[in-house]
Amino acid sequence: MSDYSEYQHLRISVDDVGVATVAIPVVGSVGRRQAEIHREISTIWTRLGEDRAVRSILVTGEGDEFYVSADLHGVKAIPGMSKEDTFDLLQRMAKEGVDIVYKMVELDKPIVAAINGKAAGGGLAVALLADISIAADDAELVDPHVAMGLAAGDHAAMIWPLLCGMAKAKLYLLTSDPVSGAEAERIGLVSLARPAGEVVPTARRYAERLAEGAPFAIRYTKKALNQWLRLGGVAAMDYSNALELLNFFGSELRDAVARGTGDPSVGS
User: Which stretch of DSSP H or E encloses residue 227?
Assistant: First the structure.
């Protein structure tokens, strides 16, 4: 039996077919809880890859959101920190963010995301980096970086142009406007959009189908397709991350905190 007891926040189970379900709790605005969940998300992919009982992964949220890891509540203390403390904090945050992206890309087992609600920041990375993404029609997908006074780092410059094209990527990343699940399907940002009650069952059917399929044919196909994501990482991700970190030492984040903008919960 697979043992994931070291994860205190994520709920992880593996069924007889080999589908590992990863349920992400509602994060809330408590900084420590945000940090702990972010850390667990950054390590779970390697752990699932090592579990020989796991053949596919279904990741979803609990409550009314998928995973919202980026809002002003989580960063409002940063403008008041010393440069040294800010630097130390950002090194950890940046490493975990990179681990979320690259560990999902490197994991050869298929990942299906059931995007049951709001996804932002690292949550949006998890949603869009899944191999098959099923979103609720009314789910809200938003990259809040620019509204928070930060360059859109993490996964955005790496994967958005590949999924929905440069024009749509610029439209949504430069404005931080939210995208509904239905619109995300229309522009190619997610695989499918479904009514809210059908999201998890549809995603689970795909996860089971992949778990029961030819494992190496599926894994090798994923590895080959993900070469495009690796190229995107080389071309844009590290560069965008560096620019995002630079913004933390400027005035625009402080101004956004003062205005109270950049909170995906209010659709900024």
Answer: helix 227-232
